[in-house]
Amino acid sequence: MDEINIRILKIILNYELYGADEPDSIKIMVESFRRFIYRNDHLAENSQSKFIHFCKFFIHFLEIPAFKKGGLTRLYTEVIDEPSISEREWLENIIKQKAEC
Question: Which of 10, 79, 84, 29 is nearest to 96 (CA)?
Fold first, then answer.
């Protein structure tokens, strides 16, 4: 589980440091993490699901331009409605910040 937490932290830190400038490299990092989760046989299904949801929502977030307020609002609602998601609070905050720009 430590390796998973380290990978998530690296994704978050890279976004916070380089987000707007390096969206493609962050997407690659998230896709790599998603593949790692899918291949991890030691992870319980519910844990796997919450990390996969994190990847799905974060990649979707990266693909929505800031001026698409409707898309950001829908994504925010989906994140809130998803019962199993890792780093929910952080995702909610970055979606709100992007929507306010």
Answer: 79
Q: 39-57 pLDDT, tens per residue?
A: 998 999 999 999 999 999 9
List the chain residues with pLDDT less than 50.
none
Domain boundaries in the chain?
A: 2-100
Q: CB of 4 within 8 A of CB of 50?
A: no
Cβ 95 vs Cβ 76: under 8 Å: yes
In sequence order, which ranges of the chain are alpha helices (DSSP H)? 2-18, 23-39, 45-63, 69-81, 88-100
